[in-house]
Amino acid sequence: MPIDAVDLEVVKASLSGIVQEMQNSLFRTGFSTIVRESQDASCALMNAKGDVVAQHVVLPLHIGAFPACCAAVLAEFGGALSEGDAFLINHPYQGGSPHAPDICVIAPVFVSGALFGFCGSIAHKGDIGGPVPGSCSGQAREIFNEGLHLPAVRYQRDFQSNSDLERIIAANSRTPELVLGDIRGQLGADRLGERRLQELVSKYGKDKVLASFARLFEVGEARVRGAIAEWADGRYKAERFVDDDGIELEKPVRIHVVAEKSGDRLHFDFSGSADQTRGPANIRPPLVQAACAYALISLIDPRLYVSSGLLRAFSINAREGSVLNPRFPAPVNTYNPTVHALVDALFAALGPIVPGKVRADGSGSRSIIIGGRSTYTGKGYVQYELLAGGGGARAARDGASAITVNQSNARVAPIEIIESEFPTRVVRFELIRDSGGPGTFRGGLGVRREYLNLADARFSIRSMKHIIPPNGMAGGSAGRPGDIWINPETAHAKRLPTRYADYPLKEGDIFRLDSPGGGGYGDPRARPAERVLADVREGLVSREAAERDYGVVVTADGQHVDEAATRARRASV
């Protein structure tokens, strides 16, 4: 049935509100710091085919994950779905989870006895087994090293949970109460979405809501195609590199994209990317598709309504057997560095043809994972933290400091929460001066986070851009690369690789993580001297770097520009 513009907007706003309410419920009922503090989770509504009709974006990659998870449920249970069912899946190859810790809870929604759609939530779990606490081994060589994998399995029937399945999950986790608590929180969010969606249908009618679904897909696709049509036809290519795969430490991993644009059609070809890796740097095609959608949303309009209609506006080719389409059972658990490199390559390829949207590379993502036995509770614990860095400078603005960049929207956990729940003390958390790449517009600064460990524990790091720094753009310089040290500035100091698993931390050990700064944009010597002076006054840039990188000589008191010396310095280069 046709639907008018006003009704469409009302239904669209209602769908967005439902997903937002689901997410608020999930974050407020989360047992783990990962969910309730860092908010490493997202929710969505799908139609009866599994296409996303609404996703309030926290983690953009999940626009590709939800349909793949629903497809697995439909393939296994499509003829036997009933009201009161719920399903779990976290298998990266049989579903769409980025890696096994991201467990998806899917609940079908029925209206008048017929399948109407699905409510879904995906949330990271602190530990689902495997050889290291946190289940994210940087040295995994196959997914069997990455913890418990669930194909699509029925979790509830007639609203009653499968206690046997819960016992299996609990038996495979170092933190069973937290994992099951978060899964139940996800289920509660799904049930809330189920009720709200049924109320929406009751209010506006099944036919009108279904017509809205179809129209939202059409509008989303048309909006993206309309923007693409305005760009110059051509063939654009770019590449970025991941430091390593965690196994072959001297071998960067190439991510290569060719974007072919003709009229309102856009095709991404990733055939030139590296072969699948021995270590866990691989990602699956649903994430590649989602990364492309994220880049297009960012370049067109960050306020675009998110639905599977956006995915219909472009096509991709990821070569089988490559790092972007690995063959089972290639490991995938430390996937985020590869996704960031992919997104940076997409922006580098498309940015120059989208006026005002070009930007330098950002810091990428990183997480620390510490596991042991809590001195507070006597139980096993996993301290999982996501840490920020510097954003890349843009064509008309400095990069933001100490933020998550690209598709990583999770939050940095508050120090008070970390210190109250885990045997650790945060002794330093600060911006790193001079870490932002110099440019007419400066890259954002990275952060230094330093911890005192209060008990013996097992430490893992999964990071990026410790060897290959964030690229500058249009003459801007690269940002400062990241680093990780155990007991820095002591006789026993040890530097860890970008990805490392199971380092034995001792009580009293210090570990320090430096996140990269963002790349700069434009010639640093074109940055106004008064802006460089402001950076020096605020402690973002040192006097030495102001002169070396920007050609701006600042007086010894750090309060004024020596104009004559600055003119001479800038004229000499």
Descriptive notes:
The chain is 30% helix and 22% strand. By secondary structure, the chain is an alpha+beta fold. It has three domains: 5-222, no CATH class; 359-522, no CATH class; 530-571, no CATH class. The strands form four sheets. It has a seven-stranded antiparallel sheet with strand order 2-1-5-4-3-6-7, sandwiched between helices. A five-stranded antiparallel sheet has the order 14-15-20-17-18, with helices on one face. Strands 8-9-10-11 form a four-stranded mixed sheet. Helix 5 (176-204) packs across helix 6 (206-229) and helix 7 crosses helix 8 (336-350).
Provide key terms for this protein.
single chain; 573 residues; alpha+beta; 3 domains; seven-stranded antiparallel β-sheet; five-stranded antiparallel β-sheet; 12 helices; 20 strands; 30% helix; globular
In a few lines, what is going on in this structure?
The chain has twelve helices and 20 strands. The chain is of the alpha+beta class and 573 residues long. It has a seven-stranded antiparallel sheet, sandwiched between helices. A five-stranded antiparallel sheet has the order 14-15-20-17-18, with helices on one face. Strands 8-9-10-11 form a four-stranded mixed sheet.
